[in-house]
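[agent] plan:
  1. take the single chain provided in the ticket
  2. run structure prediction with default settings
  3. attach structure tokens to the ticket
  4. add a short note for the reviewer (M.T.)
[agent] executing step 1
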Amino acid sequence: MRAELLKLRLLPTPRWSAAFLLVTLVLGIAATWKWGTGLEQVAVDLALGLPTAIVSVVIGAWVVGVEYGQKTMSRLLTSDPRRSLVVIRKILTAILATAVLTVVLYALGYLGFAVAAEGHGSGLDRTLYLDQAQVALVTNLVYALIGVGFALVTASMAGGLTAAFVFIFVFSTFFSILPEVGDWSFSIALSEVTDRILGQRVAFDPETLDPNSRTLAASLGILIGWVVLIVGAGWIRFVRSEGR
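[agent] step 2 finished; step 3 output follows
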């Protein structure tokens, strides 16, 4: 883990990612100062929610792909042949980096958005902001794991990023509109989980499988299933192909 954390501190991708997030945060606060937070505090989602989600995928794919890009994976596996342990370390690194980045950004943004929103109506809805931060944390951790999984599958950062973004924004959306099976899609399951965090009730109806009427446990089960499927496929490919 020490080597993985050292890479986070010294290599440029995490630094540029953090700089990008700081810029979007400042722009969001500036926009809030002029126009307010908008309906359902959309300014917070645009300044922090979407950017941190994108960066989470990048971090997840980078944690695995950096060795492939620098042609140092063989050296890493020579120094530590326990390939499953290598995967576990990378998963933990992605989770830790994503969690810290999300929490720190939302903590920094809290005061900035609160001050900027003071001149607009009721100001910042602090309860909603906390809910938005929780949604971002859950979403970003899932996205980071998706990035890890696809980078392991493709043995490449670029390939992992491409596959992850296609899966999240294209495949999952298409899958969600398919009859009979659409309700089991990654995007709907994630949406149901985040809706519960935001306080929107859902209750399970096994006959209709209405995405708005499923329990949190059912939605979590589907979401975790997708993550396990992707990360597990990458894990197996890594162990079998790099272990020989």
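[agent] step 4 note for reviewer: The radius of gyration is 19 Å.
[agent] ticket updated
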